[in-house]
Amino acid sequence: MAERKMTEKAGKSAPAHGARAQARDTRAASSAHAAPHVAHAAHAAHAAPPAPKGRYTEAVGRRKTAVARVRLFAGSGKMLVNGKEPKHYFFLPRLLAAAVAPLREMNLLKDFDVTVTVRGGGISAQAGAIRHGISRAIVRHTPDWKPRLRATGYLTRDSRMVERKKYGLKKARRAPQWAKR
User: What average pLDDT does range 17-33 have in this prediction?
Assistant: First the structure.
């Protein structure tokens, strides 16, 4: 594009871009000296909570489409799920019980602090992913406990997923209603 163009009436040359572009250029020039961009507080809240200081054992657990990153620290039994207390994150007692089942089974509820970052899936799948991740972290920390956790089924990745919808059908297997005539 040419830098300048001729106006029809006056025959004078004018800049190729109008008043809007000039205003944009002046704003850009004035903001060049401004403070750097800071992330919005709402976006910062979704970031993973900072891990407590010290060595930890980390493992990943999965269930359906939920993925949980679990960190075990030697501690006193505190647990955080996405930065919240588990009783506030899991509103049903059975979901909380399912999430901490490996710690309860091994009598380790008061021996470890646990931080969990879980994404995807629903709340029930997230509880299953946390259970799987805690089990894997315990085995990574102390391999001698693997047979006991394996016997309870906590180390088995539940591979059941939602079946995909097929074309020509209403759902994965539900066919359209058949009309005789």
Answer: 52
* Angstrom distance (rounded) from CA 150 to CA 50: 31
Q: 44-53: long-range contacts (C-beta < 8 A, 24 or more apart)?
A: 48/117, 49/80, 49/82, 49/83, 49/115, 49/117, 51/115, 52/113, 52/115
Residue 140 CA, distance from chain mean position: 23
Sign of the CA dihedral with 167 first, then 169, 173, and 179 last: negative
Q: What is the pLDDT of residue 116?
A: 97
* Residue type (1 letter), 150: R
**pTM for the structure as a whole:** 0.69
Write down all domains in the chain, each with its CATH number in brackets. 62-152 (3.30.230.10)
For strand 66-74 and strand 79-81, is the pairing parallel, antiparallel, or unpaired?
A: unpaired
